[in-house]
Amino acid sequence: MAQLPLGKSLALGLIGGGVFQLSGMPLAWMLGPLVANLLGAMAGLALAVPDRLRSLFIGVLGLTLGARVSPELMSHLSSWWLSGLLLLLGVWVSTLACAAWYRRCGFDATSAWFASVPGVLTAMVVIGERSGGDPQRIAVAQSLRVLLVILILPPLYWLLEGGTSTADNEKVVIGGLWLVLLLPVLLPLGKRLRLPNAALLAPLLVAMAFSLGDVARFSPPVWGTDVMQLVLGCAIGARFKGLAPRVLAGLMAQSGVATLIALAVLGVFAELIHQLMGVPRDVAFLALAPGGIGEMALLAVALGLDPIFVAFHHLLRMIVLMLMLPVMVRHFRPRSPQDKAH
């Protein structure tokens, strides 16, 4: 019986992916399943994608990204310090702006802050609750931001490109598929080593090492990439099961404004990166977009942009936010009656 929610989710994903594929949109096999599962969840269907299956395909994405790292690319890392600095400054400003908006929507100060920090969703929910915030509000706001960014950016890029995909149309050279067999070892190893986003980063680092050493380069067939997008899209959409349509609509409106605020603020910093470093606007904007590292890297691959530049900046944001969590906890921790008396 446990397989029924997964079967329903994947079936809806296939239908949604097929419809979006016919429309010619980029990332069709992620957006289609995502929207189909979101609608199914709102309709009350029992949908689910197990965490193990989701992690497995995030691992496949990590292998794909790691294979794109070359010695030439590594030589550019030292020149990305300015864009990294602008990214962190942009995250700070956008968090302040979004927190101010959520306060206007009735959020308490702690919930508003942890709902506004772009990234490390699970940690923000857990630490936000420990600090006295509302975990449901934080979780929904964080999830909806990622969802809305994924739904907004592909059509936006598609329209700016005149309705054509910018993805590389060269013939895919399939290779290194045996690296998938390492995932059952790499995923638990990454967790044991306490790597941030271990399911993505552990395979990425191994694939990068193999690529730099010219041992193997992971390159899946097109249908394999489509399956990866299908599962990840279903996982995101099915996350919203149990929310009544009216409640979700209200939360979507609040999160929609917050997402637009974050995109506008970070867009300004992306323009600074473009002007000061010569990085293409679309690459700079995607590197700073307030979405998840896996989803944004996957979008970069689908659009033919620079996925390593994008993934590097999202990973930097994630690591810095994780390092800042103890500071956030001290600042927002609930005050005891003795503290309040002073």
Task: Outline the secondary-structure elements.
Elements: H1 3-23, H2 28-42, H3 51-66, H4 71-74, H5 81-104, H6 109-116, H7 121-130, H8 135-160, H9 183-192, H10 198-212, H11 222-238, H12 245-277, H13 281-288, H14 293-303, H15 307-332, H16 337-341
Task: Note down, in words, how this protein is organized.
The chain starts with a helix and ends with a helix. The chain has one domain: Na+/H+ antiporter like fold (Up-down Bundle). With 342 residues, the chain is an all-alpha fold. The radius of gyration is 20 Å and the shape is globular. Helix 2 packs parallel to helix 11, helix 3 crosses helix 9 and helix 3 crosses helix 11.
Describe the oligomeric state of these chains in a short phrase: single chain
Query: What is the average per-residue confidence, as pLDDT, rounded to a whole number?
Result: 83
* CATH topology category name: Na+/H+ antiporter like fold
Strand-residue proportion? under 5%
* N-to-C CA distance: 56 Å
SSE-based structural type:
mainly alpha
Unreliable runs: 336-342
Tally of discrete structural domains: 1
The profile of the biggest β sheet is: none
Gross morphology is globular
Q: Please give the number of β-strands.
A: 0
Just name the CATH architecture: Up-down Bundle
Query: Gyration radius, to the nearest Å?
Result: 20 Å
SS field, number of helical segments: 16
CATH class: Mainly Alpha
Give, in order, the helices and strands: HHHHHHHHHHHHHHHH
The proportion of residues forming helix, as a percent range, comes to over 70%
Keywords: Membrane, Transmembrane, Transmembrane helix
InterPro entries: AbrB_dup (IPR017516), AbrB_fam (IPR007820)
GO cellular component, one term: membrane
GO biological process, one term: regulation of gene expression
